[in-house]
Design a protein that fits this description.
Layout: H1 2-21, E1 26-28, E2 30-31, E3 51-53, E4 58-64, E5 68-75, H2 78-87, E6 89-94, E7 103-112, H3 114-123, H4 130-138, E8 143-152, E9 157-158, E10 167-173, E11 176-184, E12 203-209, H5 214-231, H6 239-248, H7 256-264, E13 269-276
Parallel strand pairs: 1-13, 2-4
Antiparallel strand pairs: 3-4, 4-5, 5-11, 6-7, 6-12, 7-8, 8-9, 10-11, 12-13
Helix pairs in contact: 3-4, 5-6
């Protein structure tokens, strides 16, 4: 009887220890000897390199050199793609190997007027010949700029002392939509973290898109405010309750306008991988 109890106790300890010793599947990046251009094409990767994430209906692959990570993201569904178009894609980096947001990079498209684009380029120190500058200022069409921001765990923009070149491109390939990202390894380091980032060691990388960005949340609240003003006193001061519910993330039947707005937001997607960056061969 005593032997049986001892065996059961040991089995329980072994069972409890399994999750602590089990390792996540590591996604390996491929070393590339030449820079890959973010042109939105899949030709730089073979189909065998693509990893399928069935729940999000996307495929992805990594490649890197000593300075950059090149990420290929292939969306196989139009609803998923539209979510990226509205909110952009945020990459979360956690060097501690935890699925926990600490430091991220959000890539998205900015729509700028001619004067705004000139101001943006000049603020970055880009040289614009006078004829090119005049051409941009005279244009009546909006300009779409591929942009990125460093963000904290709340998704708030964190100012950068310098802006290493990072960008992305989008291209349709049949029914698929291909996103190709160029990310400097230097941007994966969080200056506010006490844990040093070591590109030679596996780290957690999270992907997030859809849902509502902080900017979209502000727009929703502003739109609700305008609706409340137009409605006057018909709702008996219900606006304050609705805004408070929005800020706390609570949407109830008592705020029908906000609930309707929430349903119109794109679906949120997110998942994590453990990434091993390839070392120089």
């Amino acid at each position: 009887m005593r032997t049986h109890k001892v065996l059961c106790f040991m089995a329980a300890l072994l069972f409890a220890a399994v999750p602590f010793f089990a390792e996540d599947k590591v996604v390996a990046s491929q070393w590339t000897a030449k820079p890959l251009h973010p042109d939105g094409q899949t030709a730089d990767w073979g189909q065998s390199a693509l990893i399928q994430s069935k729940s999000e209906n996307v495929s992805y692959a990594f490649s890197n050199d000593a300075s950059y990570i090149y990420l290929l993201f292939v969306f196989n569904e139009s609803k998923t793609t539209s979510s990226v178009g509205l909110t952009g894609m945020t990459f979360w980096v956690n060097p501690e190997g935890k699925e926990k947001k600490t430091h991220g990079l959000r890539f998205y498209q900015k729509v700028l007027s001619g004067p705004q684009l000139v101001q943006q380029m000049e603020s970055q120190g880009d040289f614009l010949p006078e004829d090119k500058k005049a051409e941009i200022l005279a244009s009546k069409k909006p300009f779409i700029l591929s942009w990125y921001d460093a963000v904290n765990k709340k998704g708030e923009v964190v100012p950068l002392a310098t802006r290493p070149p990072a960008t992305f491109r989008v291209k349709k390939e049949g029914k698929d939509t291909v996103f190709k990202y160029l990310i400097p390894l230097a941007l994966l380091k969080d200056p506010a973290s006490k844990t040093p980032f070591d590109a030679a060691k596996p780290f957690k990388l999270g992907f997030e898109w859809g849902g509502a960005t902080p900017e979209m949340m502000k727009d929703q609240v502003a739109a609700l405010g305008e609706m409340g003003v137009r409605a006057g006193g018909e709702r008996g001061g219900n606006l304050e309750t609705q805004v408070r519910g929005e800020e706390s993330g609570e949407f109830t039947a008592s705020s029908p306008d906000m609930s309707n707005m929430r349903r119109r937001l794109p679906k949120k997607y997110d998942f994590w991988v453990t990434l091993q960056v390839a070392q120089k061969q």
